[in-house]
Amino acid sequence: MIQALPCIYDGAISLDGRMIKGNGVYSLGTREEIDVKFPITSGVSYLPVACIEVEKEMKELKWKRERMMEDIQREEALLSHVKYNF
Question: Is 5 within 8 Å of 24 (Cβ atoms)?
Answer without folding.
Answer: yes
